[in-house]
């Protein structure tokens, strides 16, 4: 498992943008598939986006496709650029990781990941 710390959440108006960051404490960052999930109180965590260990393959949920972009750098950080935010994007956003997890064109499940951060709150409201 890997220790993950999210940052970048906050309050933004509808139509605004935020960029979330997830820092991973590992020397094997390049071997991990990284993802973002979100959760509201009383509900299960839902998949938002994932990026493969190569950085070349990404997958998004239909609800964020075209508005959110996931990326990663070679400094152990994963990003989620969120544009044109909507009130329904309000949630606690979690970063998750899994060593060597292959991804294709379909959304992933929370059960696919075994390392989780503590989350960062995103609130979209006027």
Work out the strand percent: over 45%
Using the CA coordinates, give the radius of gyration.
13 Å
**Average predicted local confidence, pLDDT:** 94
Sequence stretches where pLDDT stays below 50 over 5 or more residues: none
Give a count of the beta strands, DSSP E runs of length 2 or more. 11
Order of helices and strands: EEEEEEEEEEE
Shape: globular
Treating each run of at least 4 consecutive H or I residues as one helix, how many helices? 0
Structural class: mainly beta
Helix content: under 10%
| Termini Cα gap | 39 Å
Largest sheet: 7 strands, mixed
Describe the protein's topology:
Blueprint: E1 3-7, E2 10-12, E3 18-25, E4 32-39, E5 46-51, E6 58-60, E7 68-72, E8 77-82, E9 91-99, E10 115-116, E11 120-124
Parallel strand pairs: 2-11
Antiparallel strand pairs: 1-3, 3-8, 4-5, 4-9, 5-6, 7-8, 9-10, 9-11
């Amino acid at each position: 498992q890997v220790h993950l710390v999210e940052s970048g959440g906050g309050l933004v108006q509808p139509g605004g943008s935020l960029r979330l960051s997830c820092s991973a404490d590992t020397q094997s960052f390049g071997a991990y598939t990284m993802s973002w999930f979100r959760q509201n109180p009383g509900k299960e965590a839902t998949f938002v986006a994932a990026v493969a260990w190569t950085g070349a393959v990404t997958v998004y949920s239909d609800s964020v496709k075209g508005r959110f972009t996931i990326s990663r750098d070679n400094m152990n950080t994963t990003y989620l650029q969120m544009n044109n935010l909507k009130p329904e994007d309000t949630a606690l956003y979690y970063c998750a990781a899994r060593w060597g997890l292959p991804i294709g064109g379909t959304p992933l499940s929370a059960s696919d990941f075994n390392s989780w951060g503590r989350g960062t709150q995103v609130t979209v409201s006027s």
